[in-house]
Design goal:
This protein has 6 helices and 9 strands. With 191 residues, it is an alpha+beta fold. The strands form 2 sheets. The chain has a 7-stranded antiparallel β-sheet with strand order 1-5-6-7-8-4-9. The protein has a two-stranded antiparallel sheet with strand order 2-3. α5 packs across α6.
Length: 191
């Protein structure tokens, strides 16, 4: 075995690494991780300190992220493909980006804030349901906006639409803003 990966990873530590891998190059807040894992804050804190000590986790200003060493480890294990709930092109990317950027750190209905990252030139925001069973991911790259989930049911579709509605509300902070910004071409909602 390569000495670089000679650290024994326990089950709960593996769960933390998987939660952090959802953000790829981005950061996950401590509270978001705690919600996602349903873990007591003291236990999570001890795990993060151990992972940081072994060079698997980096602490940042806004939370935690996988180190380069850990990204190699996690990418070797593979991930599940998400369900695309919304896939649309937007007309006014500046306005949409403003709305999406305003979502950072905000709860949306039952969804609790999890993380923000920039992955492959896409702005990626993630939320998790209060019970930890549903992950919602919004991706905005160029003029394409996608919302994905780890589950495919009516609840996930409602959550995706709630995220869109909240981004729209935040983008239209004044009455002078044109409404056409979120017109979609095409607009697909799976469900």
């Amino acid at each position: 075995m390569d000495d670089e990966f000679a650290v024994e990873i326990r089950k709960d530590e593996e769960d933390v690494l998987k939660a952090l891998s959802m953000a790829s190059e981005g950061e996950v807040s401590f509270t978001g991780m705690r919600r996602a894992l349903g873990m007591h804050q003291e236990k999570l804190s001890r795990i993060l300190k151990r992972l940081e000590k072994h060079g698997l986790v980096d602490r940042t200003e806004h939370g935690y992220r996988l180190s380069g060493k850990a990204r190699k480890l996690v990418s070797a294990s593979g991930t599940n493909q998400p369900y695309v709930l919304v896939d649309t092109l937007v007309e006014d990317i500046g306005l949409v980006l403003a709305g999406v950027a305003s979502l950072r750190g905000r709860w949306v209905e039952e969804l609790r804030w999890l993380s923000y990252s920039v992955e492959d030139d896409a702005h990626v925001l993630r939320w998790i349901s209060h019970d930890g069973s549903m992950l919602i991911t919004l991706r905005l790259k160029n003029s394409r906006l996608q919302i994905e989930s780890n589950v495919h049911d009516r609840r996930a579709v409602r959550a995706a639409l709630a995220v869109l509605r909240k981004a729209y509300e935040l983008a239209l902070v004044d009455d002078e803003t044109p409404v056409k910004a979120f017109y979609a071409t095409p607009f697909n909602i799976a469900g």
